[in-house]
Amino acid sequence: xxxxxxxxxxxxxxxxxxxxxxxxxxxxxxxxxxxxxxxxxxxxxxxxxxxxxxxxxxxxxxxxxxxxxxxxxxxxxxxxxxxxxxxxxxxxxxxxxxxxxxxxxxxxxxxxxxxxxxxxxxxx
Length: 124
Prior knowledge:
mainly alpha, 3 helical TM bundles of succinate and fumarate reductases
């Protein structure tokens, strides 16, 4: 029997994920990341209610460069999840299922995420 040269199943070296699949995976990951970031935000608020000494220690931790990077990534996740959630609402209404619209709305989500994140951080 002649052995086939093609792979047995698609894998990431052969198969390129479409934009919609990548955005779906990112949407789920940002949902998890938002939960984790919200827990940190709740810890910050609890330290605020516990008095100035507790708040000072917490603020020193949350004001570090690493946590500022985490807050920036959290805000990107927040705006991405918001924009992609709005796209899903249109899909739930039965709108935008043709392939050109799906691709265009995917790029619109990415552009809106970048604009909203930049606007939020420039406003700070």
